[in-house]
């Protein structure tokens, strides 16, 4: 069973680099992911992300995403949250554009171990997206829904039944699917795929730091974009 999961995840991660895209980009992302339990069942989560435009020309996206969590047990939880996303852009003439987006989301997360020490996470998220006007004064507010499936493996570089400190490898993949009003996004059911591999260090059970490569393929109306991302991520847990 362990080998089946890891083979599947590796194939998903590698497949991102095989997807065809008409344009290719390079950007840098920084992220902080925090989870905290307030009681046996209740807690909250927050992540903040900063993403550059192509060739790190400017800050393209800021994402702030808090949520309330209910833990059924140590391996299963649900979250209800809100996300605010800003998108800065440039027109062909070099003029700046700005578009805000608000999201409400619901998610279910399942965590389990495979083998001695490999932790595997599955996350199922449904997003209700409210996109605001862009800077060109058009009335283009719209609503859409998107489903996301995320799978992640944390693999310590040494066998440890209670991994609390040391180096690890992270493998993950996330698929995005437009399930409502896809014609408002890119007309496709498939929206994007993000495959990721990273090397990290766990300082304690409360803090991880990792640096990795993320392969983001985004489907546009008539083409696709392959974004090669260098990402640094911090994970804190209380």
Architecture overview:
The chain has 238 residues and is mainly beta. It has one domain: Porin. Helices cover 6% and strands 67% of the residues. An 11-stranded mixed beta barrel has the order 1-2-3-4-5-6-7-8-9-10-11. The longest helix is centred in the first third of the chain and has 14 residues, at 2-15. The mean pLDDT is 90.
Rough shape?
globular
Major sheet details = 11 strands, mixed, barrel
* CATH topology type: Porin
- Per DSSP E runs of 2 or more residues, the count of β-strands stands at 11
Structural class: mainly beta
Mean pLDDT: 90
**What is the spatial order of strands in the main beta sheet?**
1-2-3-4-5-6-7-8-9-10-11
Please identify, by name, the CATH architecture.
Beta Barrel
- Total helices: the number is 1
Question: CATH first level: which class?
Answer: Mainly Beta
Radius of gyration: 18 Å
Give start-end ranges of low-pLDDT stretches. none
Keywords: Signal
Signal peptide: 1-21
Protein name: DUF2490 domain-containing protein
InterPro entries: DUF2490 (IPR019619)
Short note summarizing the structure:
This is DUF2490 domain-containing protein. This protein is mainly β.
């Amino acid at each position: 069973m362990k080998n089946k999961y890891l083979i599947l995840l590796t194939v998903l991660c590698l497949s991102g680099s095989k997807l065809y895209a008409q344009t290719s980009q390079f950007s840098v992302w920084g992220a902080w992911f925090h989870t905290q339990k307030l009681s046996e069942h209740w807690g909250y989560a927050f992540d903040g992300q900063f993403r550059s435009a192509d060739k790190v020309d400017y800050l393209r996206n800021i994402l702030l995403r808090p949520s309330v969590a209910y833990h059924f047990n140590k391996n299963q939880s649900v979250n209800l949250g809100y996300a605010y996303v800003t998108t800065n852009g440039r027109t062909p003439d070099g003029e700046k554009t700005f578009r805000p987006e608000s999201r409400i989301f619901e998610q279910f997360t399942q965590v389990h171990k495979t083998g001695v020490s490999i932790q595997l996470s599955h996350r199922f998220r449904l997003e209700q997206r409210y996109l605001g006007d862009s800077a060109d004064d058009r009335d283009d507010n719209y609503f859409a829904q998107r489903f996301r499936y995320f799978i992640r493996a944390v693999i310590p570089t040494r066998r440890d039944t209670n991994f609390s400190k040391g180096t690890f490898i992270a493998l993950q993949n996330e698929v995005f699917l437009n399930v409502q009003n896809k014609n408002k996004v890119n007309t496709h059911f498939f929206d994007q795929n993000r495959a990721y591999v990273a090397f990290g260090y766990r300082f304690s059970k409360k803090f991880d730091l990792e640096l990795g490569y993320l392969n983001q393929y985004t489907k546009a109306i008539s083409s696709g974009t392959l974004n090669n991302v260098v990402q640094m991520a911090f994970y804190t847990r209380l």
